[in-house]
Structures are given as structure tokens and as C-alpha cells.
Amino acid sequence: MTSHHHTHHHEHDDCNSTSTGDWRHAHNYYVDTQSAEKKINLVFLLTTVTMVVEIVAGTWFGSMALLADGWHMFTHSAAFAVSMFVYWYSRKHRNSSAFAFGTGKVNALGGFASAVALGTVALMMLIESTERLFLPESISFNEAIVVAIVGFIVNVASVFLLHDDHHHHGHSHNHAHGHNNGHSHGHSHNHSHSHAHDHDHDHDHNLKAAYFHVLADTLTSLLAIAALILGKYYGWLWADALMGIVGAVVIAKWAWHLISDSSAMLLDKSLHAEKLEVIAEHIEKTGEAKVTDFHCWQLSGKHVAGVLTIATTSDSKAEHYRAVVSGHLDIDHLTIEVNRVDSL
User: Fold this and answer.
1) Helix spans in the chain (H)
2) Domain annotation for the chain: domains and CATH numbers
3) pLDDT tens per residue across span 102-156
4) Which terminus of the chain has a smaller tally of CB atoms within 10 A, N or C?
5) Kindly report the CA angle at 22 between 182 and 332, in degrees rounded to 5?
């Protein structure tokens, strides 16, 4: 049985705050994606127009090659439509109190869904190509080559449209906010929330998924052209199936990479393990403090959160430890708890 003795002695360090407004800060970790949205809209329009033209032409001329590629284009148009919806939803609900840290992870969710769809396409390609490897079908080479070239041109244009944003997606988010509250009640807790941003990279999984979709289609078109030429001039009918298998394996690898990357954010995978160890060692080197809990995870493609709990025999406040962390790592939302103890 334990007993509790309360002296009801409180000490507050409120940084001369005169209202609760000084203590509040927004948690809407939203990433501005207007540039990416515009380009995905263009790619969606280009893909959809090509799809409609191919389906209409295929129906009019009785071309199965045109019809097949047209309906294949439909799957990518659907993927781009999902990407567009994700951006719209993320922007619409950016300030909603229903999301603890804003809609930063909505893009990751969209990217994960698109990656699963891409993996499904790869599996279907693998199954169909394997069947054709053992049971070759007759191919209208001239017609198929024209369709593959048209698809390749459209896909290359789409790749160039999305490439710049995929690798250099800009972001502007600069603010710093700090406060601490010292409280002595047998032991004390200091809470500090800090916001800092100086990242030179980002992870827009939604944009990445759209980029991989057009990249996958570009690869399949290129492999198809090579296989059709080999089949037409050398009679290598198996080349079409073999190229399909190669394409399926490469696309599956891209899909798995995106699934792994986006799921890590969705499941709050711990980040910067080595840096956290260095910071903990720096805090503990005086022998007056012990890091009892330290975690870091992503809030969005550009924002990181962290929780640090320290037991100490010194009078150091949370802001002191915040400065130590900031010297090693940029964390947009850092919560620090300092517990006073008699001995470590």
C-alpha cells in the first residue's frame, strides 16, 4: 500500500503569458500540393482523352488491340481520379478538428491504395504473360505496333509532366513556437511544444503513386514495341510474353516499394533511431538526466513529431532539452516531459 502526501506547493514558469492564446498552436500539418494537383489533372485529361479515342476507334474499326489498350488506359485514369480526390479531400479537411494532426497522412493513404492497385495490375500481367508463354496467340503486328507507339508517346508526355514535381515538390512552412510550464507537486512536469522546419525533401506518396503508374505504363509500352518488332521480323512470338513477365516483375517491385514506404507512415514507424541515440547520449552525459522515452514519427510527407521523457536531478527546464534536440534534429511537433527525481 502506498500513501500520498500533498503539500500543494506549485511553481509556474509561464513565460509571462497573459492568456491561454499564448499556449495554443495549430495541428493542421497539411502539405500544399497545388502544383502536383495541376499536373495530375493534366495527365488525367491526357490519359482519358487517349482512352476514349482508342475505345471509339477500336469499336469503329473492330480492332481488339486498340480496345485492349483503351481499357488498359481506363485503369490508369481511375488511379489518377483517386489521386485527384485524395488531394481535394486533404485540402478540404485541412483544418478539421476531427484529425488530431491534420490531413497530412491522407496522401500516404491514397498512395498506399494506388500502390495496391499497381501491384494487382502487375499480378494480372504476370498471369496473362505466363499463359501466353505456353499458349502463344496470333498477333496483328502492324496494328499492335502503332497502338504501342501511341501509348508510349502519351506515357512519355505524362512522365515528363509529373517528373519535376515528383523529385522537386516544393514546400513552405516556417514557424517556431515554444512554451514551458514548470510544476512542482512532489515532482514536476515541464511540457514544451516546439515547431521547426528545415527539411529539404518530402514524401508525397499520392504523387509518387501517380508517377509510378505512368512510369509502369511507359515501361510496358516500350517492352511491347520491342517484343512486337522481334515477333514481326524474327517470328519470336514468345518475346511478347517474356517482355510482359519482365515488365510485371519490375512494376511489382515499384509497387512493393511504395506500399512499404507509405505503410511506414500510416503505421507510425519510428524514425531516426541513430540520431535519437546520439541525442539521448548528449542529454545523459552530465550524469544528471536519464532519457526514459524518446520516439519520433511522421505526421505527413514533410512533418515529423516527437515525444521525449526525461528523469533528472537538475533544475533544467524543458526548453533546455528542446534546444539540445533542435541542435541535432528538426522536429515539427516536439512534446517534452521532465520529471524531477531525487536520484537516477
Assistant:
1) 34-61, 64-92, 106-134, 141-168, 205-234, 238-266, 273-284, 318-326
2) 34-169+204-266 (1.20.1510.10), 175-201+269-344 (3.30.70)
3) 888 998 999 999 999 989 988 988 998 899 888 887 888 888 888 889 889 998 9
4) N
5) 85
